[in-house]
Amino acid sequence: MEQPLFSAKAHVFQIDPATKRNWIPASKHAVTVSFFYDASRSVYRIISVGGTKAIINSTITPNMTFTKTSQKFGQWADSRANTVYGLGFATEQQLQQFSDQFKELKEAARLVREKSQEKFELINTGLNIAAPQLSQGLSEDRHSPPPLLCVNGPGEDKLFRSKSADIELASEKEHVKKMLSEGSICEVNMETELLTLQESNAKLVAALHEANSSIEQWKKQLAEYQEETERLREQVAELEAQSGHPASSEKQKEEISHSVEEMEALIKAKDEEINTLQCKKSDFGEMEKEREEVNKRMQELEEKNAELERQVQKAEQTLASSLDARQQAESEVRKVIEVLDLKIFDLNDLRQSLTKLLDKQPTKA
Fold first, then answer.
1. For the stretch 125-134, what's the b/e string if a residue is b when 16 or more beta carbons lie within 10 angstroms of its beta carbon?
2. What 3-state DSSP class applies to 32?
3. Per-residue model confidence (pLDDT) at position 87
4. What are the backbone angles phi and psi of residue 84, rounded to the nearest 5°?
């Protein structure tokens, strides 16, 4: 039985496929989320089981990114499962440990893929005839996460709240959500293109192996036919040198000439088949160019995704600063109200004192 490389307790969520914004709880309580290594497939996986049902079964790829959207919440997108997973931890330390483990196994998955690519290139170096070389906060009693990158206002009653500030904060929230959605879409597109490229490479390798095997067989047959032709020609020469049996020599010569013509026809047919396979080399070259273009597009998408993540972090900082300034302003307003209440109370006391003094003064005749 495989032993987990790392395990942690967390509340599991999945993105709502209809809205792509809201989270749907996948577990009623905190469950164990573990990292495993699948030796038969040479892949790293994240697995979590709730009862008899697998809540998470995600294969880690070099293009995956684990994003911490708050102090205790993180998420990652899985294009193969066509979903986004979210995990809510009890402490910030547990989230950091999970994030570090994710990055470490992501790097290990990248090394495994590079080794497989090196093997692929070593195989291609032997195909000299068939083709050119292929070069995320949660507490223990809170089981639902915040909306995606959405920060709620303070829970206490609010006094003299500015309506324009509410509108500005709402627009900033929508902007952050939009940027994160665009980043998730980019990651999904990158994963899809990578899978397509891997399938194309596998088909290409199979076709090259088959073509190389056929060419080797045809080369052997061609060498045998050439040896047979030379042998027949030598026999013709010997028969022509014989002078005692001209009639039989002529008959044997015709038979040998007929055999030579048949051999030459077979050799010509094999040459045409070899020329046809060599023409297919250009098709493999075009597939290699397409793969290079896809790799270039993937690099551009990764750069764009990194820029979107930086914009999201900047927007989060701006939003947090706005909330802090807003809370500070509300605190100052409350202090001013308390001072005004005290002054009003003092004025009422002064008014009552003046009224009593006036009542005590004697009235004039």
1. eebeebbeeb
2. strand
3. 94
4. -120, 125
